[in-house]
Amino acid sequence: MSIENLKNGLPEYAKDLKLTIGTLVRDSQLTEQQLWGTLVATAAATRVESVIVEVVAEAREHLSDTALQAALGAATIMGMNNVFYRARHFLHGAYDDMRAGLRMNIIGRSGGVEKADFELWSMAVSAINGCEQCLGSHEATVRQEGIAREQVWDAIRIASVMGGIGQAVTLAEAVEV
């Protein structure tokens, strides 16, 4: 199980995604932990089981158990936060004075990995989930933590391709063209 299996399973109409994910994995500006954590977190954000299974299987060769759990934790906490903060933003300040009341301890602990890496994964998931506030907040934090613009851009590119791969796999399973 691997990224290669995932690529080989993509339909012909997703050839651009197949080529791009290969390039991103090969030529990324990210550290190995940042790269594979971003792949895991964004695969989880697609909510497509086969995408998650393939990416996590190969990521186990590149990530410690702690880093793997942190990447999955980033995906799940942002699954909650992106819904909450996007909704609050859509309500144009009507509830900004109210406490969120949501537990987010994993963010403070960074899931046991470097803060910059956890925030990078949270940012990439926020891109997939379409939360402008979370995306901006996590991008500012990773930049303050010393992550270069090129690395931020790689994480966003990975998120976009993984989002497309999730859609292509879902379509292929549903339509079987």
UniProtKB/TrEMBL annotation:
One of its GO terms (molecular function) is peroxiredoxin activity. Residues 96-176 form the Carboxymuconolactone decarboxylase-like domain. Its EC number is 1.11.1.28. GO terms for biological process: cell redox homeostasis; response to oxidative stress. Pfam families: CMD. Disulfide bonds join C131-C134. InterPro entries: AhpD, AhpD-like, AhpD_core, CMD-like. Keywords: Antioxidant, Disulfide bond, Oxidoreductase, Peroxidase, Redox-active center. Homotrimer. Antioxidant protein with alkyl hydroperoxidase activity. Required for the reduction of the AhpC active site cysteine residues and for the regeneration of the AhpC enzyme activity. This is Alkyl hydroperoxide reductase AhpD.
